[in-house]
Structure formats: C-alpha cells, structure tokens
Fold this protein.
Amino acid sequence: MNVYDSHRIAAILETLGFSAATSPKSADLVIFNTCHIREKAAEKVFSDLGRLNLIREERAAEGKDTIIGIVGCVVQAEDEEIAKRAPFVDFATGPLTYHRLPEILQKLSRKKETPIIDTEFPAESKFDFLPQNSSMGGSSFLAIQEGCNNFCTYCVVPYTRGIETSRPVDDILKEAQVLVDGGSVEINLLGQNVNSYHGEDSNGKERNLAFLLQHLAQIKGLERIRYTTSYPADIDDDLIACHRDIPHLMPYLHLPVQSGSNTILKAMNRRHTREEYLEKIAKLKNARKDLQFSSDFIVGFPGETDADFAATLDIVRQVKFCQAFSFKYSRRAGTPAALMPNQVEESIKKTRLEELQKLLFSYQLKFNKESIGKIMPVLFDIKGRHKGELIGRTPYMQNVHAELSKDYCNKIVNIKITDANVNSLSGTKEGKE
Ligand code: 5AD
Ligand code: SF4
C-alpha cells in the first residue's frame, strides 16, 4: 500500500512541475512515506530525518532550499512526537490526506509557520482528488479499499488508516482500463482488508470482491489479477468460486493467519479459529488445485505459551506455505494488546521467530526447488543488478532472475527454471530469442 501511495504522491508532484531526483542531495523536496505497523519501521523515519537534515544544511550552504515532508501512518499516530523530535520538518500529513499536497506546498511558499501538520480523517475520499492513476509498468497496484474495522488487538491500522471504505465499482473498472492501456498486464488490487470490499455500482447497489473480479477478468489485455491482503473470515463462497472460474486470477493467495493457537487468535480478536482457517484453505484448494498460500505470523503475542507457539508450528506443517512474513510482536501504544499482562520476553520472541522462520524457509525452499525443470510464465518488470539481467515473478510470486534483453521488460515470458534458492529462482528463456 505504501508503494502505491508513493506512486500516487509522485504523480501529484509531477502535476506541480516536479520530476524525480537521482539522490536526496540533488532534491529540492524530499518526502518520507512512513509505516507505523511495528516499532522498528516507525523509529527508522526519525534516524532518516536526522540524516536528511544534515544534507539540508549542506545544501543551504550552497544557497539551495530543501523542503522536507513526512506522509503516512507515523504522522497519523505520532504527530506530537514529530513536532518534538523533528521540528525542522516542513510538513506532515496522514495517509488519507496526501491529496492536499498542492495546498500544503502553496502554504509553505507563503512561509507560514512550520511544520504544517494535517492528521484529519477527511470527509472526502482522496481518490476523488488524485490525478488519474497511471501504469507502474507490466504490473500495477490499484487500491480498491482502505482502512479496517477488524481491530485486531495488536494492530495500529484502524487508528492510522481509519475505518474501512470501499471505492465505487465504476471508478475501479475505469482505472483498471487506464492501467491496461498504459501497458500493465497484471493488476494487484489493494486493501488492508481487500476481501471485505463492498463498493457501490452505478445503481447504488453494494457489490463484493467477486463481482469486481468477474468484471476485471473481462478487460482485454489484462492477463493476471491478484488481490491482497485478505482476512480469513471474509473469504466467502463467491470468492472461492472466482478461484475456480477465473483463470486470470493467479494461483497464489496471501492469507494471514497470525497464530495457530485458538487462545491467541481470540486474544488477538481475530474472527477465525485455526480450524476455520484450515477449512477455508481446504475449500480454496478444492476450487483450484494449484493454489498456493502465503501468510503473516506474529510470535510472542502477550500470553503466548510454548504450547501456543507449537500450535503455530503445527499449522505451518499442515498448510506448507510457499512464502511467509513473520514478525516478533511489537507493542504499539494505543492498541489493547499493549496493555495486556504477560508480555513475552524479547529473548523468547527471538528464539521463537528463529524456529518459525527455519520451518517456513524449509517449505519455501522445497517449493522453489520443485520448480526446477518446469517452464513457467514470468512477468518481468525490474532490471537486475547484473548487466543484461531482468527480474520477474512467476504466478506463485517467486522472483525469477534471467538473462534477457530489456525488450522483454513488462512482458510475460516462458522461462525454463534451472536453479532455485529460498528467495529466488533463475532460468532461461524457452525457445529462440
Ligand atoms: N507486531 C508485530 N507484527 C504486527 N503486524 C501488525 N501489527 C503488528 C504488531 N504490533 C503484522 C501482522 C500483519 C502484518 C502486515 O504486520 O502480521 O498481518
Ligand atoms: Fe490490522 Fe489486518 Fe487486523 Fe485490520 S485485519 S486490524 S489491518 S491486522
């Protein structure tokens, strides 16, 4: 979501006559787009800001002005902290108000008092004020829903991104067509809880994600559709049927479970048990045999015992996730879990995370190794570090490195997989160049 927001922020700045700088030293304006989900991410912004302030001083000595701004969830949650710890910042705006950037920059040019801080939850939708979304290359993000009403007890999102709102169906379909016309063959629909999508169609009728997917699948030239991130309890039969009926829907689903223990899931205020999660996985797999799953995990949630943690390892063994993101529980001020008793010691969190990741990586490596010898359609959209190398993704979101002419960038190419490790595959193009 932050990559998407940054892309949209860059588009606003382009309309104001800015263009991308090659380094912070050559930039007249630097904006940090921030994440507040875990403490580490939130702290990073303050050290980055300190470093940038030194660059600003160097530039000032050369007679150049630098505007420094912060956008995103850290602003929403820590506006007072920003004013205290980084008073040199010119402006700070939350994730729902960055469409006001033109006004903010105008105010700054009048040298009003700084920092200008905007943490309002606005009545208007930023999507109605942003410039037209544009293709990000072969693969684009399209935000269809924002915010979350789930209030998992560890999570800041409902407080920083606000309550859940869904964009209207027609706006999304139009935007998807623009992205495809601009060269995207893949669209990744975004939302904090994307499968609770309930936007209105042109008759004012509420429609679900399945409805949207069926319509998107009819766009000529759109070959791959993904959606992320889903909430297990909101996976309904309509959506499961889409995985059976829509070949464009990629056979990879990110479905965070967070923990394998029912006691912990309850304390997390997740609306699913481990049994219900496994049942959803089985139904989805039944609808599409080649469907693979990835997930998010939190270890060391308050009160997590060895037995609870063992239940998490057990669910990993059952599902055999092809990819996963795992984190130590991070205590976030303002969330209910931060005040819970029985906070888990840091050393235990560390050991559990290592054990969990060892297991997760073993399945990920196994899955990747099984790709060797297969011919897979890979969508290339990034230049590799080595000359003549492109990086792309298989339908299962595996990264693939291949030596290919840049003419293949933003295209789907059949690649014979020759090697694999935990994080990526490599291969060569099938057939003649
Ligand atoms: N501590 C650790 N991980 C967290 N996540 C969200 N909040 C926290 C927290 N307080 C993780 C969840 C979520 C992912 C985006 O970040 O696993 O799915
Ligand atoms: Fe946070 Fe996701 Fe839970 Fe919403 S569903 S509160 S975004 S972890």
Observations:
- Residues 148, 150-152, 155, 157-158, 192-193, 231 surround iron/sulfur cluster (ligand 2) (CB under 6 Å).
- The two ends are 36 Å apart (CA to CA).
- Residues 59 and 266 are 53 Å apart (CA to CA).
